[in-house]
Design brief:
Blueprint: E1 4-8, H1 18-27, E2 32-36, H2 37-40, H3 48-56, E3 60-66, H4 74-83, E4 101-108, H5 125-128, H6 130-138, E5 147-150, H7 157-171
Parallel strand pairs: 1-2, 1-3, 3-4, 4-5
Helix pairs in contact: 1-7
Bound molecules: flavin mononucleotide.
């Protein structure tokens, strides 16, 4: 069975509604490891060798987080800076991630209508996430369309339950899926 690593980065998971529900849904599934970065590294000191072992042991990588300042919470950036190092993720001999898929799963406070030209936030979230797309490209990882929950504060319990089911379905391995085959998930399921 193919294995999926969900790298969860939420600095206040105890106060989270959306990411906590998604993480619980992911944990119910076989072949999926939810790795809570802020729980693993409360002092923010990342064990790079451990993280690289985890990545080597999985076929698919999902970066799950609440959208903070048009990006990911800080520890996920630090994780990328330190774990995706030369000789591991890129450069000479740096092919450890090649062929593993990369996908972002993010809850976004603002509604989709705010994320478009002329809207308050000007750019679609898929565009703001391009650094992840480019990172996937450089590391040889097929980049799958982001799983997005817009208007995360306004999602009611039924919608959240539907999103969790949708997330679980999206997490099911689809080996052979070509990047770009699917549309971003951005409206209530
Ligand atoms: C520090 C911080 C920065 C945030 N930045 C954004 C942002 O740039 N765009 C946005 O739409 N929502 C933003 N939000 C709202 C979060 O995305 C929202 O609280 C989160 O998706 C809720 O998920 P949760 O229930 O898992 O905590 C921000 C929230 C915080 C605390």
């Amino acid at each position: 069975m193919e294995r999926t690593l969900v790298v969860l980065a939420h600095p206040h998971l105890a106060a989270s509604r959306v990411n906590a529900a998604l993480a619980d849904g992911a944990r119910e599934m076989d072949g999926i490891l939810v790795h809570d970065l802020y729980a693993a590294y409360p002092d923010l000191q990342i064990d790079v060798a451990r993280e690289q072992r985890l990545l080597r042991d999985h076929d698919h990588v999902v970066l799950q987080f609440p959208f903070y300042w048009y990006s990911a919470p800080a520890l996920l950036k630090k994780w990328l800076d330190e774990v995706f190092e030369h000789g591991f993720a890129y450069g000479t001999g740096g092919d450890a991630l090649r062929g593993k898929t990369l996908r972002v799963a993010a809850s976004v406070g603002g509604g989709e209508e705010l994320y478009r030209p002329g809207g308050l936030n000007r750019f679609p979230v898929v565009d703001l996430l391009r650094p992840f797309d480019a990172t996937a490209n450089l590391t040889g990882m097929p980049y799958l369309p982001p799983f997005l929950i817009h208007g995360s504060h306004a999602v009611d319990d039924d919608e959240l339950a539907a999103y969790v089911r949708r997330y679980q379905a999206e997490l099911v391995t689809r080996s052979g899926t070509a990047p770009g085959d699917q549309q971003p998930v951005s409206s209530a399921a």
